[in-house]
Write a structure and sequence with these properties.
The chain is mainly alpha-helical. The chain contains 14 helices and five strands. It has three domains: 45 residues, no CATH class; 102 residues, no CATH class; 102 residues, no CATH class. The protein has a three-stranded antiparallel beta sheet, with helices on one face. It has a two-stranded antiparallel sheet with strand order 4-5.
Length: 266
């Protein structure tokens, strides 16, 4: 699709309309208006439980607790919320329809797993209005590139992979810029910044002695993602330059930077 058409689609989103209004109402730069919007969005989700957004739907999926080999007709099902459309999709669309499908596959399977469900290849074909063979090829492409696609068959037969959010934070810790990650993972710069911010919050709470359940309540993230972030934190080690940069930034609650030392966070 032409770049001009994608730009028009981006401008039509509710998020961009609100951000534009904040810019004009409070005379703010677009970057600051977007930062305030994303923070307020998290407040509404946490305190008012307004978790459904434009582009989302309720979908009946198979529970992750169903054992392998059980007939689909006999499996327990869960009602979950899936995001069929969001700004990241327009970033992927710049790379073509195949990239758009693959971006959606990553998001939909990850959202389902976070809510205790697993999508099948048939589910993805239905949701994305394509054939099962196309979905199968897309999943093979993603997995060959090291991207986790937690479908029912993959998780039950092979085991869990690492989510795209953890991969994105890992890319940043490895030295990639936000612009490079945007092209590499088909996510907006805003989404990439949010994942890094979530990682920062998880590690800060962890080093203060909170367990995973307490971090989940404080950060509003799934226990699976928290576990991945903590595993990434342990893997990169205290000498990672980007990790030190991230954790030395002032904490939102105290406005004081964290002092980084080997083996300890004060």
């Amino acid at each position: 699709m032409e770049q001009s058409a994608i730009a028009r689609l981006m401008a039509k989103s509710p998020e961009e309309a609100i951000i534009d209004q904040i810019c004009r109402d409070f005379n703010l730069a677009p970057f600051m208006a977007r930062t305030y919007f994303e923070q307020m969005q998290r407040y509404f989700e946490r305190y008012l439980h307004l978790e459904r957004d434009v582009g989302q739907m309720t979908f009946l999926a198979l529970s992750a607790t169903n054992p392998p080999g059980r007939a689909v007709a006999e499996c327990e099902r869960l009602a979950i919320t899936l995001t069929l459309d969001q700004a990241d999709d327009l970033v992927a669309l710049e790379q073509g329809l195949a990239a758009l499908r693959r971006s959606k596959i990553q998001r939909l399977t990850g959202e389902a797993q976070d809510q205790g469900a697993l999508l099948t290849q048939e589910d993805l074909a239905r949701l994305l209005c394509t054939s099962r063979s196309t979905i199968k090829r897309d999943i093979a492409h993603l997995r060959a590139a090291g991207t986790a696609v937690p479908t029912r068959g993959q998780v039950k037969d092979i085991g869990r992979g690492v989510s795209h959010k953890t991969q994105i934070v890992g890319d940043w810790l490895a030295g990639y810029t936000f612009s490079q990650i945007k092209r590499r993972r088909w996510h907006t710069v805003g989404s990439i910044a949010r994942y890094c911010s979530d990682f920062q919050r998880v590690v800060r709470l962890h080093v203060r002695g909170l367990d995973v359940a307490e971090i989940r309540r404080g950060a509003g993230l799934s226990e699976r993602l928290i576990g991945e972030y903590l595993a990434l934190y342990e893997t990169v080690g205290p000498d990672n330059e980007r990790l030190n940069q991230l954790l030395s930034e002032p904490a939102a609650t105290t406005a004081q930077p964290a002092e980084v030392k080997r083996g300890a966070w004060l």
